[in-house]
Amino acid sequence: MKLFVTRILFLTSLFFVVGCQTTPLAQYKQVRVGMEKFEVLELMGSPQRNIRASGVDKWTYIFYDQSHRYQREVHFKNDRAIYVGEPVKPKVTAEQTDSMNDRVNKNIEQQNERQRLEVVPGQKSPASENGSSPIKVPVEEILNTPESSKGPKPIYTEIK
To answer: Could you give the domains of the chain?
Structure first.
């Protein structure tokens, strides 16, 4: 009889404990914008991922409810939640960013090449008399002329 009562008490307490547990999804639905980090930690526990960029902490929670996988984010600024919801997708893909960077780099290289070519002072081309552009030669050729062989005069600055 004593064993029977012990089993009944154990099963009742187990049912009570299991019945009071909430799912991670239900807990996540309680997270609100304006909550502080410690409140979210108490409710959800530690995030699976934590990234900080541009002064914003992005916490990612991944959990399963039955057969579904859920990924949710909480963003914090100044220790307060400013976003709660689905993962934020970047506005530009990595491939698009690479393509933009390639274009910018190509423009910079072209500007550097144009700056490398310089007009030789005092030299006229037949085209310049007709109103066309003057002769352009690489800076290296200008620097190898006898007048510039002495090199630029150094400038000294006093450091106090």
So the answer is: 21-85 (3.30.1450.10)
